[in-house]
Amino acid sequence: MFDKFISERNGPDGGRRRFFNFCGIDIEALTYEEMDHRIDRWISDKSGRSHHIACLNAYCISLSLRDERLKAIYQHSDIAGPDGMPFVRLMRYAMQAHCDRFDAPDIVLHLARRSIEKGYTFYLYGGAPDVLDSMRSYLNTAFPHLRIVGARSPPFRTLTDEEDQAVCDEINRLQPDIILAGLGTPKQDYWIDAHLERLRGSVIIASGATFDFFGGRVAMAPQWIRESGFEWLHRLISKDFLRLWKRYTYHNALFAYEFLGQLARARKSR
């Protein structure tokens, strides 16, 4: 049934990469170990372009249905990982392969722990000033070894060309290995796409709510809720209800409608 959803292609390193198609977006089945190997290879060349890790969930897919630019950004990201246990469980079942959940907070914690061995350096871009300060304090307290070489809270408005160039100059001077872009979806995705060639030798992670979680503005769901697949419900009934209700009602319903249509077409074609 799922044969038409699954594709394979060679990666830049010659290895085989497997993808599951959700409404036109190919999401990769991979593990953190595989991600680690890619990150280490990417950051070894500080003269090369930066690389994009996208964490994709139903909201991202829903937005891409009406936004061709966003769809292209996700399709061309260097890693498009499944953010959400329903995605992960379906991919594991359909592809008979192990894959990890790629949500930004877990990736950041994983890389922070791994930086004990690897010495990764981090740059934080996004969040309100107080949230950014709290996030930086949290990470420094939880991981005393962590090297955060810079942090910037951009204004809500569009930056001028001069301001944007100053950001690029600062980041390129500091040469961070990992850039956490926490501007919200899809703004952070547009920003990453516009700066992949301008920022050299970094891995840029679309970090979304990571800044709010680690900055203490919003409480992260307990682990058992996150693993259950109902983290969206925990967030919906949180202090961000007015901001998130449309995401978890209209956009989730839109994704479900489109994906069920994709399933029906695949079944009919058989």
Write down the overall mean pLDDT.
Answer: 89
Percent strand? 15-25%
Spatial gap, N to C terminus? 8 Å
Structural category is: alpha/beta
What is the N-to-C order of secondary-structure elements (H for helix, E for strand)?
EEEHEHHEHHEHEHEHEHHHH
Radius of gyration: 18 Å
Strand line-up across the major sheet? 5-4-9-8-6-7
Q: Output the number of helix runs.
A: 12
DSSP E strands, number: 9
Give a quick account of the main beta sheet: strands, pairing sense, barrel closure.
Answer: 6 strands, parallel
- The best one-word shape is globular
Helical percentage: 40-55%
Low-confidence stretches: none
The total number of structural domains is 1
Task: Name a few traits of the molecule.
single chain; 9 strands; alpha/beta; three-stranded antiparallel β-sheet
What does it look like?
The longest helix has 29 residues, at 241-269. Helix content is 50%, strand content 17%. The protein is built from twelve helices and nine strands. The strands form two sheets. The chain has a six-stranded parallel beta sheet with strand order 5-4-9-8-6-7, sandwiched between helices. The protein has helices spanning 32-43, 58-64, 68-75, 85-95, 104-118, 129-142, 161-174, 187-195, 210-214, 223-228, 231-236, 241-269; strands spanning 6-10, 16-22, 25-28, 51-56, 79-82, 121-126, 147-152, 178-182, 203-206. The chain has one domain (3-269). It is globular. Helix 6 links the parallel strand 6 (121-126) and strand 7 (147-152). The chain is α/β, with parallel strands linked by helices. It starts with 5 loop residues before the first strand and ends with a helix.
